[in-house]
Amino acid sequence: MMAGVLGITDIWTYVLGTVAIILLPGPNSLFVLSTAAKRGVGAGYRAAGGVFVGDGVLMFLSAAGVASLLKAYPPVFLVIKYAGAAYLGYVGVTMLRGA
Length: 99
Prior knowledge:
0% strand
């Protein structure tokens, strides 16, 4: 009955749909493939592991209803939004320096 509390009516349909969406080719697949092609199989496995962990966290947080929590507390959302923007800016600057 915990799934009803989280806003999910059928947990297995949710899990199946989430896994199917994640397995579709997209930016994560391109990241893993390009990393493996440039740096080797070991780096590709590490990249895939990172994608898996990130997707696992995303699935857990979405199932836990974190979006509703962030909507209820706008200052927390702003902190996360600006922290994410700062991180993406850092990644961009690092990529520019490396090029």
